[in-house]
Design goal:
The complex is a heterotrimer of chains A (503), B (635) and C (100). With 503 residues, chain A is mostly helical. Chain A has helices at residues 3-17, 24-48, 78-97, 105-124, 128-139, 142-149, 155-184, 191-200, 205-220, 231-238, 241-266, 268-294, 299-320, 323-354, 359-362, 365-368, 370-383, 390-403, 407-432, 449-467, 470-502, and strands at residues 57-65, 70-76. In chain A, helix 4 packs parallel to helix 11 (241-266), helix 6 runs antiparallel to helix 7 (155-184) and helix 11 runs parallel beside helix 13 (299-320). Chain C has a single domain, classed as Orthogonal Bundle (Helix Hairpins), CATH 1.10.287.3510. Helices cover 78% and strands 0% of the residues of chain C. Chain C has helices at residues 4-24, 28-53, 57-87. The termini of chain C are far apart. Classes of the chains: A mainly alpha (503), B mainly alpha (635), C mainly alpha (100).
Amino acid sequence: MTPWVMLSPFIGAIAMLLTPSTQKDWIRRIAVGAASVSLAVAVWMFLNYDRSAGGYQFITEVPWIPALGVSFQAGVDGISVILTLLHAVCAFAGVLVSYSIKERVKEYFIFYLLLIAGVFGVFTSLDVFFFYFFYEMAVIPMFPLIGIWGSKDIKDYATMKLTLYLTAGAVLALIGLLALYFLTDLHTFNLIKLEEVLSHKPLPAEVQYWLFPFLLIGFGVIAPMWPFHSWSPIGHAAAPAPVSMLHAGVLMKLGSYAILRLGFGLLPQGAYAWMPLVAALCMMNILYGGLVALAQKDSKFMVGYSSSSHMGYVLLGIASMTPAAMNGAVLLMFAHGVMTALAFALIGHIYDQTHSRTLSDWGGLAQKIPFVSACFVIAAMASSGVPGFGNFVAEFLVMIGAWEPYPWHAVGAILGVVITATYMLGAIRTGFFGPLNPKWENLRDARTPFERLPYLFLIIVLLALGCWPGPFIDTIQTGTQTLLNRVGAAQTIAKAHKESTES
Amino acid sequence: MQLPSLAFLAWTILFAPLVSTLGILLVGLRRPKFSHSIAIASMVTGFLASVYLFIRLLGSPGSVGSQGHGEHPFLEHAISWISLHGLQLEVGVAIDPLSVLMSLVVTGVGSVIFIYSAGYMSEEPSYSRYFAGLSLFAFSMLGIVLANNLVMLFMFWELVGVSSYLLIGFWYQKPSAAEAGRKAFMVNRVADFGFMIGILMLWTVSGATGQERTFNFAELADRIHELAAAQALPYAALSFAGAFLFCGVVGKSAQFPLHVWLPDAMEGPTPVSALIHAATMVAAGVYLIGRCFFLYADLPDLLTLIAYVGGFTAIFTASIAIVQNDIKRILAYSTLSQLGYMVMALGLGGYSAGIFHLATHAFFKALLFLGAGCMIHALHTNDIWEMGGLIKSMKVTSWTFLIGTAALCGIWPLSGFWSKDEILALAFHQDKFLWAIGSLTAMMTAFYMGRLCFAAIFGKPRGHGHSQEAPAVMTGPLVFLAILSVIGGFLGIPRFIHHPRAMHVEFDLGVALISTLCAVIGLGSAWRLYGKPSDLPVRLRASFRWLYSLLANKYYVDEIYAWLIRNVHDRIARLCALFERYVIMRFCVNGIAVTTRAAGSVLRMIQTGKVQTYALALFAGLLLILSWMMVGIHP
Amino acid sequence: MITLNHYLIASGLLFAIGLVGVVSRRNTLMILLSVELMLNAANLSFVAFSRYLGHSTGQIFVFFIMLVAAAEVTVGLAILIVMARAVGKTDADALKSLRW
């Protein structure tokens, strides 16, 4: 079942190749169809995931290069089933929002579906080789998507920066992964097998200590961990709305997911040793990112820096290594993904008509486009951590979880919420409230149910997450608990080893 | 009836307004009749349910805190919300005298104000949105009241902030309203920063007994008792936790120095000011102190601090009210001052006195705001000097307003007299200085309310527009609230609300006489100055010019904050942005790109294009490799 | 007695002379001649080794090299003529359009 989330957009892309580019409606329908199939499969997996059993489920395995131990293996655990669902949600909304793309529709949707397929591939593959393959496959369509359909003023710089940054990060990670492959001496890329062997016979502490930074920085670039974040706001700002939705909503979560899956899963002791540094860096994400967002005049840059600020909470949750914080981190990946997708979709709706991203240039939009404005207020509230939305639950869990190991960091995280509220409300105040800027007399609201569907869909997901997080947390817990146990076990083994060498 | 059905009633009180909000949002946005019907129906349902709970509570023997240490709720019903290793969060309702009284006040005053709104807002195009916001507020407020644990309380605490933001900014096209909404939300956010830390600290302390940590009020109370009994109370941690929790109170109940948002919040529709910014939401802070009294009762030093914050707020804001000209702002500063009273009462350990004043204040302050709303509605102005002579044209409004004023000033036998007197008597027995402050505040209160009444209600009609009595849908609520303001003192609230560890003093005739005397002096001097046309106010203003401008500018607190925000907060943000742009982007990131390019342009010098250079390099390389191999063979 | 070493030393000297010629001479014709010198140095050592080891492979190789050298000279001289026509000089330094 699992590969179908990824295959469906892939097949959709192939079908589009065979469709004449004049048939724009059919191309769009294929895209919606492909995204809906993925969404259906993702929801099905989420509902049918056996929470009491935990572990990897819905596994499909197809051998590929037996000599190197590479096989296509797909499956999900508690963490990735949630993130697959997130991606399915964002992709579905993103495809609907993509109706606003009017130029080179065919090429656009092919790249878009390839991007979707790549990200699904990362979340579902259980083979390090394919993990990396899909990771790169997700990065590459970003280049044409931003370079061709992006905002004219900044897209060249943004595309180059983003691609170079992410590729450089990927190469660093690749070094770490290859070293892992050779050092384990198992000649397999099979993640399940690797995890199983390494949990019984971990790599020496020294090796883990030196190997982990490769994965941390390599994947941290996309997370985006301070100070490697500067590709992301401009990338968000330059990309067309549906691409920003996936980019900020999902792509950034690949980094923290990879750190969890590969870093914590395979190098628990290395992770343990490096987490205090991550905790310190993510404070920079939260506070510094928030303050920079505060000083932005451009709405997309503001949401972009806000994203990097909020990803700091995810990293803090991971670094705290307590059940509450870890679950909060994964839940925040989900909640923030949905919220930020909503925000970018709404800004895109306005940008398509005004061709202006500057907040002070908007002014009083709520009178002209009440529906979009109301949705933006909701997105801003969700982002500011108002209860009722998933972000609050997640951030609250991160704070509680971080409170005991890192009390000062937790205080900083709480302060970050205040900063978020400052810029979010400021944006509403300047952009949407107050008297209407006469320039925008002819602005069009999202009127038809079909136009409103993506926004309402995302809002409902956010509310569901915030009001009844139980099922989500129960699912995530099965995944995070395994990782935490692994870190704990690694600590005991290391201690035992130390004692035996001392005596 | 069995207990589960009582729990069901409590849940009904909580969720009825939510149903109304969702109903309006889903189907009612273009159906004004439907909107106000469902909203009012939900509040009345809640009120009836609260009355029933109240009766049941009165009838049950253990309700008045006679058993155990009296901190266990009469009824608690919770469901698990998040369940993790080492962290259990639940959503639940707790029914005890405090929560029932509060829900009575919220749903009672709420119902009345909802009905009034149907008249007041009838010409508003976004009528349904208004009722959706109001219902959302009611839901959130009842959530605070009924919550059985700190986290749930915090969640609803934030939600009342949101609904208050939405309602203050109801007329969002007005820049002042949009700004006021943001200010209210932000000030509360800053306060909640402390509140959140307090919650986390208290959570840690709750693990000190060795049990799993908890947020549940009853369990927290138990554990603190247990620790206190074992002489193992972590006094410092607990004090900090209490102080941080109090930060939240300072924000929500608008105590000094975070009082600045409340006067601005008057930009919202007047019924909103009545319900949210006078009767209920701002009292949530006071309620929180009451709810956490088990904690504060063990921390006398902190209580003293709280009392002084309250006392200072009371006199500080009352003095500002004296020189305001906007009727809603006068009432807003009066609200601040009365909230200061309540906080002071709780700080003095007067649990029942504080909550008693909260209830009576809800009645008469809602009445005053609604009356002011009628006047504004009729005259289309907020300035008291453009009103006047309303006693003839708006009889019901004026008379009920006068009753409210008398209650606020503490005139016997109205409700305000009893509740205020209880606070003053408490202060008299504990802290004479606070008592003096309280009495002085009472005098100021009487003075500015007298000034307001003489200017707006008596005298000759000034200004433009002809005043006309409001329709029955608006005067009815006034009469109802006026009745409550009159009899509120005789309902037995202080006996119903009781905490075993609270201070309690008997009625003190001397204190009562002095405070009445203060009120009379205040009213008398107001009459002397404003009762009949005279130039005395102008002369006074001229001779105390500096004092007048200090008060008229609200002690420049707003200006100080604006300065701080402009010069500290904004500068830091801009500094970070500059750092981002120049250090990270230009220097580091683009720097790497520039370095790469520079390295390329240097290294390509090697490509001379001369065949012979290449040949030389080739041979040199060959030689090197060969010699290295030689060394390898014969080391 | 002339031993293998004598041949090898002679071959080495020849090679070195050719190398110095290739690197130091300006004139393309001289460079071409020097390359021939180096090739012949290699031929000499091939023949010497062939005699020393009593094996004919080395001598066969020399034929190959002579063939290749002939072809090379043909191509090289052709380039030289084209160059002389195009640039007017036979200086190797004149050909630097491939430089940065």
